[in-house]
């Protein structure tokens, strides 16, 4: 669940009860990220891993924690929490509505996160499609959100396959480079 809400603390228990397996909140929306991360961990349900765009469902585990930052937030602001989360989400549009233009100038944030935290899942959300996914994957994203590019396509399946393949190939290349 990507919670684009002003008080993410109040939604942890309801989302866990509803069966959410991941709870991603915006760093800017809380005054105490550490306490919220702890609360999310304590309210765990099934766990999931989206490594290389392949969903796997382990049996039972903790609720995974994702931490999102808006385009105007410095990536270094997320760094103190990186070792306590499962996924960092870099917004490449201003939150609020779909169909916005991809903000390529957010890719240095993705690259910085990948170099500082090589095993962290890094997701990009906003304006991602066939023309922009390469930039995300090359910068270090191993997870993407793509809504409009898929839904507006005449062949959604081929778009999904392209997005998956680009992310997978980039992740394989990174692992060979290590």
List the helices and strands and how they pair.
Layout: E1 2-3, H1 12-17, E2 22-26, H2 33-42, E3 64-69, E4 87-91, H3 107-116, E5 121-125, H4 133-139, E6 143-145, H5 148-151, H6 156-177
Parallel strand pairs: 1-2, 2-3, 3-4, 4-5, 5-6
Q: How do you describe this structure in short?
A:
This is ribulose-phosphate 3-epimerase. The protein is α/β, with parallel strands linked by helices.
| Sheet with the most strands, sense and barrel status | 6 strands, parallel
Radius of gyration: 16 Å
The largest beta-sheet arranges its strands as 1-2-3-4-5-6
Whole-number mean pLDDT: 87
The CATH class assignment is: Alpha Beta
Give the CATH superfamily. Answer: Aldolase class I
Basic shape: globular
Q: DSSP strand (E) fraction? A: 5-15%
Alpha plus pi helix count: 6
Note poorly predicted spans.
Answer: 45-60
Q: Can you tell me the CATH topology? A: TIM Barrel
Give the total of beta strands.
Answer: 6
Helix content: 25-40%
């Amino acid at each position: 669940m990507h919670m684009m809400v002003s008080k993410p603390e109040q939604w942890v228990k309801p989302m866990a009860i509803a069966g959410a397996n991941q709870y991603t909140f915006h760093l800017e929306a809380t005054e105490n990220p550490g306490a919220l991360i702890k609360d999310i961990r304590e309210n765990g349900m099934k766990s999931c891993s989206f490594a290389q765009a392949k969903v796997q469902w382990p049996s039972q585990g903790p609720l995974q924690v994702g931490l999102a930052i808006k385009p105007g937030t410095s990536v270094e602001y997320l760094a103190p929490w990186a070792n306590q989360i499962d996924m960092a989400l870099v917004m490449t549009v201003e939150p609020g509505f779909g169909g916005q233009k991809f903000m390529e100038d957010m890719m240095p944030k993705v690259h910085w996160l990948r170099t500082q935290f090589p095993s962290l899942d890094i997701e990009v959300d906003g304006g991602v499609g066939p023309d922009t996914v390469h930039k995300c994957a090359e910068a270090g994203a191993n997870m993407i959100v793509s809504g409009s590019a898929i839904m507006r396509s005449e062949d959604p399946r081929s778009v999904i396959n392209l997005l998956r393949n680009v992310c997978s190939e980039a992740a394989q290349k990174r692992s060979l480079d290590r």
